[in-house]
Design goal:
This protein is an alpha+beta fold. It has three domains: 2-33 and 215-423; 39-204, Sandwich (Jelly Rolls), CATH 2.60.120; 448-637, Histidine kinase-like ATPase, C-terminal domain (Heat Shock Protein 90, 2-Layer Sandwich). It has a seven-stranded mixed β-sheet with strand order 3-2-5-11-7-8-9. A five-stranded mixed β-sheet has the order 15-17-18-20-19. The protein is rod-shaped, with a radius of gyration of 41 Å. α12 (373-392) runs antiparallel to α13 (400-447) and α15 packs across α16. 54% of the residues lie in helices and 17% in strands.
Length: 639
């Protein structure tokens, strides 16, 4: 047990060190987040005016995001002065949109478009079909600014760079009026412009610098969340001494939530490392789906009834099949993941409603499940609100952050309480093992006290003259008896009753030599398929022999019987000796009270058993050992 506690201690220390290191990295990066003298974030890179969906023209404010939802946005103006003053690159991070940059007279400077000249939509590329545009792209002197998606009609998440030198080579100056057209090709979803299009002006490698100083601290925080889910909860499940499905389910939930949040935070930078822009979009969306799947399994882990679990399994299975279908359709080029999100969002809300109803049904029938309301109610409600908000757009807040935060706090508190309880149980187990060992030593010593050994050896010595063969058999039996007592110190588990009975017969054989005809032994064994602590019956039989029959002038009979009831096994030791008054105050009557107390404690702690004693003065005593079937070990674990 000490080795187990030591391993747990080292595991806790290792976890604490890793958390401390990651927290230190976060703290180290935080100060750099406020140093943006070499980066300049803009709404777009033009100064002038813009129009959304053919509406009125408004002045561009590059320091304020455009929250207006759009299908097509047009910007007209000159390049911001910073482009020529001290910055060099224009980093464009776009999500699920096409865009085209041209001069006011229609000359195409560059664009982000569908592959192989395929237009993502009629509107977005209508201006890209002019002959002048075609001729310009055929010229070798055109600027190196032409980006393509890998799938038709799927913009994905793109990160592209326009170099100032290339613009100057194309004849763009401070006074050149440029037109930037940005189109959302998805007719089912209206998106806020600044959520789909972002610009960063920088000197060099601006996208990487922006990621490091702006996104990395948050990424490191969610790496902690991933680590929290990947290691802490599963490890805690093992520390608790059992495979805890709820721990694993919540660990998976935390892990994929962390990955999903990391993906969302770095979604504008994914194209820096993943060349295919559609894969970038797929990674971000799929991690969100996996987060929902792990949420469903976590909620399902709180269900206990077979009916509710079956419904939950069917619900989760349908969701997984929908995700698999969306993946197949995406990579076969039929329809991309982003276009399939509306249907999956609807089913996400429906799944959470179904799981919530199932949990409520169980809570009405089980008080323990009702206590878990604080765990899953905020999470399910927040996800349902977010799914509705995806269509109604009544706020930009993501409510599931709060729901998951409450759930995580609850799970951490519950984990701490479970670990505390486990620690107390480990201490109690150690104490119980020490007490049981002391009890076994006490029982063993009580059976081989000097007077017992003297009486046994004296009886054997007498037999050497009267009956040498019996003396030889008695010597061998006594040796086996002593060996069995010594071996009991090594035994930590209950033993089969038949093994205990064989040892008991050796003891009674020796006592029979001593008492002769005054001691009669009878057996009525009707059940043997159970276990009990070693040397737990012998002290009771010893009392029956020495202080029951042995105290009676004419002697008597000791009977050992076993029987099986509906919920327990019973061992009955009865004698027709002198008996005693069970209601009288205990006194020094020569009985082995300490041995009986140890026996009762061992029976209770190891098998949940108890000893009931009934006695009548002058008639005898009946001691019944009751061993509940619930406390019996599986026969495969028996030594």
């Amino acid at each position: 047990m000490k080795k187990v506690l030591r391993s747990k201690t080292w595991t806790a220390i290792a976890l604490a060190l890793v958390f401390a290191m990651l927290a230190g990295l976060v703290a180290l990066c935080v100060p750099f987040c406020f140093r943006f003298d070499f980066l300049d974030k803009k709404t777009v890179f033009l100064e002038g005016e813009y129009s959304v969906d053919g509406g009125e023209w408004k002045t561009i404010n590059n320091n304020k995001p455009i929250t207006q939802q759009f299908r097509r946005a047009v910007f007209k103006g000159t390049l911001v002065p910073e482009t020529f003053d001290y910055l060099e690159d224009i980093n464009i991070s776009s999500k699920n949109v096409w865009y085209t940059l041209k001069t006011a007279d229609g000359k195409l400077i560059g664009r982000y478009a569908a592959p192989s000249g395929q237009e993502g939509s009629d509107t977005s590329n209508s201006s890209a079909k002019t002959n002048g545009e075609r001729e310009y792209f055929d010229e070798r002197s055109r600027p190196d600014y032409s980006f393509e998606s890998s799938l038709p009609n799927t913009p994905g998440y793109a990160n592209n760079i326009i170099h100032r030198e290339k613009l100057q080579d194309a004849g763009v100056t401070k006074d050149t009026v440029l037109v930037l057209e940005v189109e959302n090709p998805y007719r089912f979803a209206e998106t806020a412009f600044s959520d789909a299009f972002e610009v960063t002006l920088s000197r060099e490698n601006g996208a990487y610098l922006q990621f490091f100083f702006e996104a990395l601290p948050t990424v490191l925080f969610f790496v902690l969340v991933c680590f929290f889910g990947l290691f802490l909860f599963p490890v805690a499940g093992f520390i608790l001494g059992r495979v805890n499905y709820k721990c694993f389910a919540f660990g998976a939930l935390c892990f994929f939530w962390g990955l999903s949040m990391i993906s969302q935070k770095v979604s504008g930078y994914l194209n820096l490392w993943i060349i295919d822009s559609t894969v970038c979009m797929a990674v971000n969306i799929l991690l969100g789906y996996f987060f929902v799947i792990t949420t469903l399994f976590y909620l399902k882990s709180n269900l206990e009834r077979s009916v509710t679990r079956a419904v939950a399994n069917a619900t989760a299975s349908v969701y997984i099949l929908m995700v698999i279908a969306a993946i197949v359709l995406h990579f076969t080029g039929i329809i991309d993941l982003y276009a399939s999100t509306p249907n999956i969002f609807i089913y996400t809300a429906l799944c959470n409603i179904i799981l919530t109803v199932l949990l409520v049904v169980e809570a009405l029938h089980d008080t323990r499940t009702a206590i878990l309301l604080v765990s899953w109610t905020p999470l399910t409600i927040s996800i349902i609100i977010d799914a509705v908000n995806h269509y109604l757009r009544f706020t930009d807040v993501h409510f599931y952050y709060f729901g998951l935060g409450v759930t995580m706090l609850y799970q951490v508190a519950r984990l701490v309480m479970d670990l505390k309880k486990q620690y107390k149980e480990a201490i109690r187990y150690q104490q119980m093992q020490r007490e049981l060992y002391e009890a076994k030593v006490s029982v063993m010593v009580s059976q081989i006290q000097p007077h017992f050994m003297y009486n046994a050896l004296t009886s054997i010595a007498m037999m050497c003259t009267i009956d040498p063969e019996t003396a030889q058999e008695a010597t061998v039996t006594f040796a086996k008896y002593l060996r069995g007592n010594m071996d009991s110190l090594k035994q930590t588990k209950p033993i089969p009753f038949e093994q205990e009975l064989e040892h008991l017969k050796k003891y009674l054989y020796i006592e029979k030599l001593r008492f002769g005809k005054k001691l009669n032994i009878e057996y009525d064994i009707n059940a043997t398929d159970f276990v009990l602590p070693q040397l737990s019956i012998q002290p009771i039989v010893e009392n029956a022999v020495k202080h029951g029959v042995g105290m009676k002038k004419q002697g008597g009979t000791v009977t050992i019987a076993t029987r099986e009831t509906d919920d327990a096994f019973e061992v009955v030791i009865s004698d027709d000796g002198v008996g005693f008054d069970t209601s009288a105050e205990r006194k020094d009557d020569g009985r082995s009270h300490v041995g009986m107390e140890n026996t009762q404690r061992r029976l209770r702690d190891m098998c949940g058993g108890e000893v009931r004693i009934e006695s009548t003065v002058g008639e005898g005593t009946v001691a019944t050992v009751i061993l509940p079937k619930k406390g019996q070990q599986n026969e495969n674990t028996l030594p």
